[in-house]
Structure formats: C-alpha cells, structure tokens
Amino acid sequence: MGNKKHILVLTPGFPENESDTTCIPALQLFIKELQQTGEVTISLITFQYPYKSSIYNWNNVTVYSIGGQNKKGVQRFLNWRKVVKTATKIHQEKRINLIHSFWLTECAFVGNKIARKLTIQHYCTLMGQDAQPDNKYLTKIRRFPKIITLSKFHATTLAKNTGIQPQYIIPWGIEKTINTPKNSRSIDILGVGNLIPLKGYDRFISVVKEVQQQFPSVKAEIIGEGPEMKRLQCMIIDNNLSQNIRLIGKIERAEVLKKMNKSNCLLHLSNYESFGMVLIEALAQGMNVFSNRVGIAEELEDITTVEDNKDTAEKIITLLNNPKEGVSKFPLLIEDTVKSYLDKVFLSEFEKDI
Predict the structure, then answer these.
(1) Domain 187-321, what fold?
(2) With 50 as the cut, is the pLDDT of residue 300 above it?
(3) Which among 81, 82, 77, 53 is positioned nearest to 65, based on CA atoms?
(4) pLDDT of residue 183
C-alpha cells in the first residue's frame, strides 16, 4: 500500500461480484475508475447488500459486507455497531486518511461516528432523494460532514430544504467505451427507471397517447420494475396503447444500453433527479433526450427540456417527422469525475493531513 492515501468508502449496497452489473452502476463506475488511477488505496464497507456478511475482492478493492439485509429496529443498530467495529479494525491494520460516505442517510450518520472516534475527515456525496425534506437523517445528523452534490439543481434542492450549501458540486460521468450508435432505430420512445410515482410514467403514457394521434404505430418501451407495474399496465390497456407501449421489466445494464442504441429518443419525465445518469447514457448512445428540468438536464445543451404534456408531445412529433441521425455525445466522463474528487477532496485532504 505504501504511502498512498487510504480511503474508507461507506455505501448501503455494492455488487456481490464483478458480474453483478445492476447494483448501483454509477457507484461501480466510480470505484473502478478510482481504483485504476493507482492514486489511493480503497477499503469499502457495504451496509445492507450483499445480504450475507463476508470479505471479498471486487476489481482489486477489498469489500467488507455487513449483510444488513435492510432489517430495522435493534438489528439495524447492531449492524451499525458492526460497521464501526469493522472500520476500527481496518484503521488499525492500515491507517484510514479519509472517510467518504454515499447518500446522506445511515452511511453518513455512522460515518460521522467513525470520523469522531478515529479523528478523521468525513465527506459525503448525496446521490438521490437524500436532499429531499422527507429524509429523516437530515434531522438525525447533528453535525453534517462536508457535502458534495451532483448538479446545481441538486445543490439548490439541498439548500432549499436544509439551508446547507455543498462544499463542492461534482457531476457524475460515464465510461467512453459504450456501443457506437446504429442507424436503425426501431424504438421511437424509450423510458428507463424504477416504476415508482416519482418517475412520472403516468405522464409518459399520456404523452405517447398524444403522439399516437399522429403516429398510430408509434413504438415505445419502458425499462424498469417497481410497485407501479400493474397500475401502469392497466393504464396502457385503458388507453388502447397495448400495441404501442411495452413494459420490459428489469434487465442487465448492458441490455439497457443496447435498447438505447436502438431507440430514437429518451423521454424522462421524473419529478426529481439529483443528477440523472440515464440522461448522459442516452446521449452516449446517440439518442435525442427530452427531460423535465431536473438534475443535470438544464446544464447540458444537448438535452431538450420539456414543460407540459402538450409541449412534450409536440417536440417528439417534430422529431419523428424529421428524424436525426444518432451521434454519440459524451458531455461528462467518469475519468473527469474521479479526477475532480482526487484534486478537490482525496489528495487535497491528504496534503492537509501531512
């Protein structure tokens, strides 16, 4: 390990092996790219998933799985104690220089306890809805770690709900080894995301209904699973769209990218996004992207922001009347994200530590 800075990463979940591609893909990309720089040594504790307690190697990163299984009450408290004990043991074996937690939830809460016990600097990257007022940890955490958000929209949401300004805004990126877009795009409109009310699939279906009035054979697909599956299927049937919209369910990330590669446009009507990694993945696959004004959408000129259903349908109809050839665009790369973390956080804090 030498004199490399030792980073302890805390996360609620992490892949159980290198073929587990659906578990938090964004975090996988980040940790893998960070490891490959050779600039730091990484130890990672995952709280809830995998569902068994173990120590294993993932792309040359040592992962300590607590196996919390999302249990509540006393068991969750006992798991937190196990995290602290594990971190302390890691620190005894090789001094930890910095703690980095992901999501301002239990990982940040327990990360604070570890940071105080071991007298270590603690950063936390907010990754999703943890900036929203219904996050109970916003009141549980008495003294916040140094905060990083993913977009200006994300930072504004956090400030509005807590009065806290982030230390840094560091956008997320993707790898540049994604498939070259194909000329043949058999899917007109694609939706990608969990089937929950937040993602706005009611509107998605309504927009497709409006588009169908001018394009009776319009083809749309929605990738994802969740509690809204049955209700959305009923809505599709009630609107006589069974021949137009397919619910695909959950598929591997590589298959999602292949679907994007065959799709004309991404329709993303989520009511909230901290960032929206799916938006830049779609751009990389040469898709036209239509999105609500959430996450990174307003910061990227290649994304078309939309308002109401009529405005959205009109923009998609215009595109379908005048199809554009798909061209890959990579506005944000994971290597740049990692470089920013190294320059602003990891190595910078190391210099202070020395």
Answers:
(1) Rossmann fold (3.40.50)
(2) yes
(3) 53
(4) 62
In 3D space, the residue among 105, 102, 97, 86 whose CA is nearest the CA of residue 40 turns out to be: 97
> Which helix (H) or strand (E) covers residue 56, if one does?
strand 54-58
Distance CA 253, CA 15 (A): 13
pLDDT per residue as tens digits for the range 140-157: 998 999 999 999 999 999
In this predicted model, what pLDDT tens digit does every residue of 34-81 receive, in sequence order? 999 999 999 999 999 999 999 999 999 999 999 999 999 999 999 999
Q: What is the CATH number of domain 5-173+334-353?
A: 3.40.50.2000
DSSP state of 344: I
The letter for the amino acid at 206 is S
Enumerate long-range contacts of 337-344, CB under 8 Å, 24 or more apart.
337/30, 337/33, 337/170, 337/171, 337/172, 337/173, 338/30, 338/33, 338/34, 338/37, 340/168, 340/170, 341/34, 341/170, 342/34, 342/37, 342/39, 342/40, 344/168, 344/170
Distant-in-sequence, close-in-space partners of 279: CB < 8 Å, separation ≥ 6: 266, 268, 289, 291, 295, 296, 297, 300, 303
Question: Residue 3 has what pLDDT?
Answer: 79
User: pTM for this structure?
Assistant: 0.91
Q: 150 phi and psi, to 5 degrees?
A: -100, -15
